[in-house]
Write a structure and sequence with these properties.
The complex is a heterodimer of chains A (97) and B (168).
Chain A (H helix, E strand, L loop, with lengths): L1 H12 L3 H8 L3 H5 L6 H8 L6 H15 L11 H18 L1
Helix pairs in contact in A: 1-5
Chain B lengths: L5 H19 L8 H6 L11 E4 L6 E4 L7 E5 L4 H18 L1 H6 L1 H5 L3 H13 L2 H4 L8 H9 L3 H9 L7
Parallel strand pairs in B: 1-3
Antiparallel strand pairs in B: 2-3
The chains are: A mainly alpha (97), B mainly alpha (168).
């Protein structure tokens, strides 16, 4: 959600001077307070130092990207695993017999 | 200006292109880029305009005559899809040199890669990601993308190759 929120903020900034004016006046935290960022990310974004709005946006992108949860791959067991285990079980039974 | 990667630059370009699409309220292709240039957002009243020119040197170029509104000078006899693409590409120059664009710091971010950035920006202004998603994995995707979004076919191919993973 945070990256989508940041995307929308940057998108708006190209036609809405209020965002850039808030940034230039050191009031970007006011803009961020209305947006759906987690408290931790919002705190980080509020404390970024940048000379221009574009520089701020890039630093914000890095911040939000770093805060995104790592996507875990769903790992299904290989069908071969079951076959190998069954073979081993069978060998074990044969040895007992 | 901090050092910025290509991925970061392109992320920014995609978002400002989307910002203009959102401003126009467009929900389906084709994106009316020339209409936007003729009726710009208030903040670009002195930066967007279109002037038809006879030229054999270039397809389109942005220029800002002294004390006058900036305009994109476009070759009059271009095919419609090439005209749309050329206008969209030069729109980035209009943004960069506008008062609002200078206040944003666009020049610092894009001046060194203006041609490449303009082309990336144009592909996403004319074919925004939410609309392109519909065309994924269709047969004859390139031709259909070009026709629907009114793009030159080569541009449609390049657009399909653009990475959009950070957009979602």
């Amino acid at each position: 959600m945070s990256m989508l929120t940041l995307n929308q903020l940057v998108a708006r900034s190209i036609v809405d001077p209020a965002i850039v004016q808030a940034f230039s006046a050191g009031r970007i935290a006011d803009v961020l307070s209305d947006l759906e960022f987690s408290p931790e990310v919002r705190t980080q974004l509020s404390s970024l130092n940048a000379e221009t709005w574009t520089e701020y946006a890039v630093l914000a992108y890095r911040t939000v990207k770093a805060a995104q949860p790592v996507q875990t791959r769903i790992e299904l067991p290989s069908p071969a695993e079951g076959l190998i285990r069954r073979d081993e079980d069978q060998i074990g039974k044969e040895q007992v017999a | 200006m901090i050092s910025v990667t290509r991925e970061e630059r392109e992320w920014f370009l995609r978002n400002i292109a989307q910002g203009l699409v959102d401003y126009m309220g467009v929900v389906e292709p084709p994106v009316p880029v020339e209409e936007m240039l003729r009726h710009p957002p208030t903040v670009y009243n002195y930066d967007f305009g279109v002037v038809d020119m006879y030229s054999n040197l270039w397809d389109a170029t942005f220029a800002r005559p002294p004390s006058r509104r900036g305009s994109i000078f476009v070759r009059i006899n271009l095919p419609p899809d090439q005209r749309r693409y050329a206008l969209a590409r030069e729109t980035l120059s209009a943004l960069i040199t506008s008062k609002h664009g200078r206040e944003m710091g666009l020049a610092e971010l894009f001046m060194d890669t203006l041609q490449e950035s303009g082309e990336h920006f144009a592909r996403h202004l004319l074919a925004p990601q939410p609309m392109v998603e519909v065309f994924r994995n269709r047969e004859d995707e390139d031709r259909e993308l070009a026709d629907t979004f009114e793009l030159p076919e080569q541009v449609a191919i390049e657009r399909k190759q653009d990475s959009d993973s950070s957009f979602r």
